[in-house]
Amino acid sequence: MKRTFLLSLVCLFHLSSFAQPGKPALRIRHLVDSFYTYVSYGEYNGQNYPANAMYMVTDGGVVLFDTPWGEVYYQALLDSIQIRHGKKVVICISTHYHEDRTGGLTYYTNKGIETYTTRLTDSLSVVNKQNRASHHFTGDTTFTIGGHSFEAFYPGPGHTQDNIVLWFPKEKILYGGCFIKSASDKDLGNLNSANVKEWGNSIHRLQNHIGKPAYIIVGHNDFTNLNSLTHTLQMVRTYNASHKSGSQSAATAIITAMKNSENDWNKGDLTSFMKMYTDASTMMMPTGPAGLSAIRDLYEKHYFNGTMQIYPVRQ
Fold first, then answer.
1. Given its phi and psi angles, is residue 129 left (phi above 0), alpha (psi -120 to 50 degrees) or beta?
2. Are 172 and 43 found together in one domain?
């Protein structure tokens, strides 16, 4: 009893000694069998925002799937795992290059932990000045560690160009990371690196590959609702439909303006034709930029004088 109490105090010391004002404590909870989820917090839109991740306890040590978000949690997670399970972390696999997944890679590499990303993630980490792993793999890869096998699967671009998921066929756990949004999310979140146009196709590839999961761990917020993958797909479809409509409306407006200008030209209606210009419009002349009045004079002298070329209106 005394030993357990002492270890608990050590754990609390580590969690508090790395804590920052206003930063929530690391949260760990059992998922199923040898799997545990943990939640760390980074800053998003000026607020503490939860990042979900997972680890697996094996006979050969503990495997992390993504690092915590924020250095306050790097050592705290290692200490908590050691106290809870009496094991060391031996491997860490990050699922894409963003800081909430790769932030602790250098720290863990320096601790002797083998860290992994895909080569694509490594390339993007270099370009975006993010921490890099010590080992890299290419394509869909099966890992076997301490009697457990799982697959790193690339469904295609979505949240980022490089996002992978991890599939545990025996337990039917889908670790989706930020590729999958929570069923409670109202939007797709950070789209700075996203390919929303292809995201839906990538989801379909994933669904065809894994079948029906029993657990889906999403990158942020609640992961207890198994509708998260279909909810993500629906949000992607809604986003693409609204943006396609907007781009089509802009294109339609441009084409309409061009056709109106063409009709005005062919009718010899200079006043209507000049409506496509604004007071700030200029045209380069041999003497330099000329304003609206000079533009009108040019058209009137050379084109709208009864000898202008008539062009057919395209349908």
1. left
2. yes
